[in-house]
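Researcher: Here's the sequence for the chain we discussed earlier.
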Amino acid sequence: MDLKIFGAVDDYITGLFEQEDSSLAATEQSIKESNIPRISISPNQGKFLQMLARLCHAKKILEIGTLAGYSTIWLARALPEDGKLITLEYEPLHARVAQKNIDHAGLGSIVEIREGKGIDLLPKLVEEGAGPFDMIFIDADKPPYKEYFDWSLKLSRPGSLIVADNVIREGKVLNDKSPDEMVAGVKRFNAALAANPAVTATIIQTVGAKEHDGMALAIVK
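Model: Thanks. This is the structure I predict for it:
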């Protein structure tokens, strides 16, 4: 088994279930044209997140890390007409491109982009009583993942689903001496998640177009 077979199987699944429409394809094209890092979730992962949102009957979703809005579109499409998704993005360019993509997908009335550092915006959401959110998706800079999770708990209710992406880092989390700050950040998050009595949680490994990684899933008790 190698990366080629992982990618081929991912393409097979995508061809069966997750064919992108024009809005999602345009979002991916905007990433290339704007020189934005090509680190969005895959179509299969987008469909997975969308199904999770529907399974928990989400009406309010918080996303930490917008990038160009690819995952935002998948998640927002799971919401009812009166639903709401707030997404946080640090880079002004990313926020501008994401807004265009979200508007093009016809989701401008449901999605609100807030620009700034997540670690600064999350306390403001708590202060204004923006929660509780039914689902929270964490997919931003890795060093403060634990802090993002801590604030996510403050914006949750019993039954809220919290999902965090990129928590296996191609297996590098097994290396206790890794100098990579992203690996250190997710390891700190993973350990804190496992030790937190306020949630029931696990991590699933993921392979495919995004190579070898994992998503953490936590349900607030």
